[in-house]
Amino acid sequence: MSETLDIGSYKLRSRLIVGTGKYKSLEETKAALEASGADMVTVAVRRLDLKASGGDSLINYLKERAYTLLPNTAGCYTAEDAVRTCLLARELGIAGLVKVEVLGDPKTLFPDVVQTLEACRILIKEGFTVLPYTNDDPITAKKLQDIGCAAVMPLAAPIGSGLGIRNPYNLEIIRNTISLPIIVDAGVGTASDAAVAMELGCDGVLMNTAIAGAREPVRMARAMRLAVEAGREAFLAGRIERRLYATASSPLSGVIGSKVG
Question: Which of 32, 58, 98, 181 could be disulfide-bonded to 203 (CB atoms 3.0-4.6 Å)?
Answer without folding.
Answer: 181
